[in-house]
Amino acid sequence: MAERGSSTNAYLLVPIILIAALLGTAVIRGPNLVSESGIGSAIIVAAPLILATYALMVLAVTGRSTVDLAVGPLLAFINVVIVKLSTAGYLTSPIATFIVALGLGMLYQLLFALIVIWVRVQPIIVALSGFLALTGINLVIMPRPGGVAPAFMSDWGLGTSIFSPVLLILALATAGWYLFTATTFYSNLKMMGYDERAAWTSGVKTSTVRIGAHLIAGIYVGLGAICYTALISSGDPTQGQNMTLTAVTALVLGGVALSGGRGGAIGALMGAVSLWLIGYVLATFNFGAIQAFMTQMVYGVILVLSLLLTLLVPLISRYVSFISPWSAFLVLALVVIGIMLQVTTYGAFETLEPVVASATLADRYFLLPPARVAADGLAFSPIQGFALLAGLAAIAFVFTARLVNAEAGARTMGLFLYLFVAVLLTALFVAILLQPESLLFGAAP
Question: Nearest 5°: phi and psi at 146?
């Protein structure tokens, strides 16, 4: 079970590395992202895509290559219905709006599940039929974008603050998934995704499990439609097709297996955020009249590359098994935070000329020796040097420990080699610390 969990987590390395690279680039290209309004706007814009990816993730885990291509048109269908009812004066309260949105999503997904179970049609056929039918129905209900969203949503899509009802919906949706994973129903769902025949033989009611998974997906689509309505404050029947392509790409990029049995909210969230960051980074470049086509082309290329990387991850993970995805996330997060701090504080301080503090003034006015600004060497004070060496020693120790753990089961001299390297590194740091007047601290040779 532990090996299966570690191999599953290996698929998160790709979205983690991609998010770090894209977020660093986005912060450099658009520094306004690192602000309260920038983060708030990002949450509101990305929320519909994240929730649509959650819906696809739930269905993909069930197996049978269940990818609901109609997730985008279904989201747009709920959007135009809410706006139509609101414009007519039938929807005025939040409770009624949520009931309509979640109810429509669950009804469609229930119909989807019943057709797959009882009519025994392949899910991809049902999904494609739903995509075409809902695309036409949306245009019949609302031929062109327009209408007005419910009045209580007027402040939801402003994006002026980080904490908003949209963020609350995202948090509750993610927390709800992880509460769901603690149930026996989720275990049966994953078992069915790995092997439906074996699950049925083991006594799992596969039809009930499949219907439950579709109902959960309908809830996520309904929540996504509410966030999308709050974002645009109107109805738009034409955005469903783009949403489907983007959500499927985010699903694959997040390491969710389309064959079933593997997937989670973290991977889907990372995939959706990566896709949003790609659009944000591309928007900082000026491609002229082909801006929209360039974005769609990049989405398509990333979808193909993600499928290829999914095939290569089991092979690559054999050689980098000592690298934990969460360790990589921690290290890359520190790097990205450093880039954010540099970008946000750049130009906030005036440049001063180097000042040399004499020994008398240093002894009189400083409790600790100051950094030797004009001295030779790297201009580190003893405390700064000690902090630097302590950090390097910690990194070396963690890296060596991971290597030792990876080689512990091998009948080779690898374990002795890494222990020998660790002893040499420790001796090096001890030797430097015992010589505080070395060139590292700016002393004369």
Answer: 170, -165
The C-alpha atoms of residue 405 and residue 6 are separated, in whole angstroms, by: 14
For 124-142, b/e burial (b = at least 16 CB within 10 A) is eebbeebbeebbebbeeeb
Residue holding tokens 């007519």?
88
Q: Tell which phi-psi region holds residue 260, choosing left (phi > 0), alpha (psi between -120 and 50) or beta.
A: left
Among the listed ranges 10-19, 135-144, 388-397, 424-433, which one has the minimum average pLDDT value?
Answer: 424-433
The H or E element containing residue 108 is helix 94-114
Dist. CA 281–CA 177, nearest whole Å: 30
Residue ranges in 30-69 assigned as alpha helix (H) = 36-61
Using CA atoms, how far apart are residues 228 and 136, in angstroms rounded to an integer? 20
Dihedral class, residue 379 (left if φ above 0, else alpha if ψ from -120 to 50, else beta): left
pTM, 2 dp: 0.73
Measured torsion, CA atoms of residues 278, 279, 281, 283, in degrees rounded to the nearest 10 = 160
